[in-house]
Amino acid sequence: MLNPLTENREMESYHGAPAPQWPVRPGQQLPPLPLAMRPITAAKAIGVSQRTLWTLTKRGEIPHARIGSCVVYPTGPVLAWLEELTARPPAKQLEAAEGGDA
After folding, report:
1. How far are the Cα atoms of 1, 56, 62, 84, 98 from residue 9, in angstroms, in the given order?
2. What is the pLDDT of residues 42-93, one digit of tens each?
3. Would you state the pLDDT for residue 78?
4. Whose C-alpha in 8, 22, 62, 78 is 20 to 30 A from the C-alpha of 88?
5. Domain ranges of the chain
6. Which fold has domain 34-97?
7. Which residue has the higher pLDDT, 5 or 17?
8. Would you state the pLDDT for residue 11?
9. CA distance 30 to 21
10. SS3 for 51?
């Protein structure tokens, strides 16, 4: 049976174990993260559409690697990229802090 949050079987198997059920409950152990994610998994993991993920990939904004004709998203660098994005102040706050007109 597929997880209701997934639309295909790519996320159904998670390191050979069933995909974790959401929401995750306190104290629940999760399997280790994969080294890299395929596009469908990566898009769901960061909460964007596959089209948005592909746009970010083509612009070189999100960490990714090409292995033959396959594109994968390394988990560690993607998590670091997300942390960097959340640490940045919004553009309008940045302009005001730099003395721009507010």
Report:
1. 10, 24, 24, 31, 48
2. 999 999 999 999 999 999 999 999 999 999 999 999 999 999 988 877 665 5
3. 95
4. 22
5. 1-32, 34-97
6. Arc Repressor Mutant, subunit A (1.10.10)
7. 17
8. 45
9. 10
10. helix
